[in-house]
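ok here's Serine/threonine-protein phosphatase 2A activator, seq below lol
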Amino acid sequence: MTHLTLANTGIPEVPTKATYATPEKRIHDSRALQNFQQSTALSELQQSLGRIVALVEGKDIPDGVFPPDLLYSKEDQEKYSHDLSVAIPVFEKAESKMDTILKEKPYVKAIVDLIGKMSDLVDQVPPFPGPRRYGNMACREWHTKLEESIDGWMTQLIVPFYNMKNVDGFVDEVKWYIVNAFGSKERLDYGTGHELAYLAFLTGLWKVRVFGDDVNGEDFLIMFGVYYNLVRKLILTYTLEPAGSHGVWGLDDHFHIIYILGASQMLGSDSSKNGPAISPKLVSNKSVVYQYSSRNMYFNAVAFIYKVKKGAFFEHSPILYDVSNVKSWEKILKGMLKMYQAEVFGKFPVVQHFYFGGVLFPWTNAKTGQPLPIVSSEDSPKEPTKHQSPPTSTIPMTESPWKTPAGSSFQENVIKAAPGRAPPLGETTRAPWASGSGSTHGQPSTRAPWATRQAQTSASSSQQPPTRAPWAK
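and the structure came out like this:
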């Protein structure tokens, strides 16, 4: 197998050393948004998401991730469990598959434990009494406690798996993405930009080899699953407002990645593939939704909608209802990815809140590795700046993991990257000293583990919010 290297991509090499830096705001206007479309950070996020989508294809969420009582009541379990080939999970306590995985994958357990500590904070900060439609002020106290605790938690749980230089710089840079993954402390809202921050957090950890080479789709389903559990707890406890919602004409009030993951999980289950037919139309059937809600992210997201919204599904969720008319899950996945490119990566109101550091998501050109122009909030162009720090704060960075030839769209690349169509994780180019074991954390490899051969290009940022799924026929 030919590995992707600088020699066969024809793309200039980026600087071999990078310096951690506290993430800063870089997207202040439309010009900066255009620069973002050419950035290392965006290309990196696209490649990481694409690899995760490929890893979760055809995989079920391990049992134990989504406790049934978070999705539906015992009354619903009894009401909608009739006439099903597989019974809706009942409320039982037993060792789950997730428990087994956490014993085998300590770095996955570290993420679960980190989210668990944040969840415990919610219990310590009850909502203030009194009527308020959106945004209970107690949420700000929760954010403050999170900010005060995150350094210690990162040192305790994540740093043991980090074996590169400058631990303090690493923690300072990566913590921004997890702290900002749970909504706005000021606006008391939550939306796809915060969900993006969590993707960035996992991507950053993956990039610096906190995750082992044996990380797989079930691991990512666990790490995303516990995150969604906490976010929903925050939404329901503090009545967080949907951030930048399009109302009923948006895909979902809060989430998007969860539908991408769920659609990939369903590949192979529709009539165009081998295996039992699970039609997208079944999202309007509560019995089926509850049946699959603990196994599939897409149906899990719909189950949460049923929990928080009343009325007919086609009335409160017309876009999702429209999508349910699409015949194949592969087409739904392509459409969800296309929509994500336009509505998240390509939308100024969303990505203006994404910050850029020195190593994990640098403000550099993806093709040249050179710093992108910096425009201040006063709309005055400035020369790119370089972060200065002692030599001990640099970590070796050779080939950028997302460096791929241009030519095809983001969503097409993700579909091509599915298992059997892309090199397995372990077949990426590795440093000579890297061991062959499943969990390698000692030294950085020459490429990020999710790197694939495919290219990605950015969709136009001028696309307006759709009133129906653009791929639905």
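fwiw Residues 269 and 276 are 6 Å apart (CA to CA). kinda neat tbh
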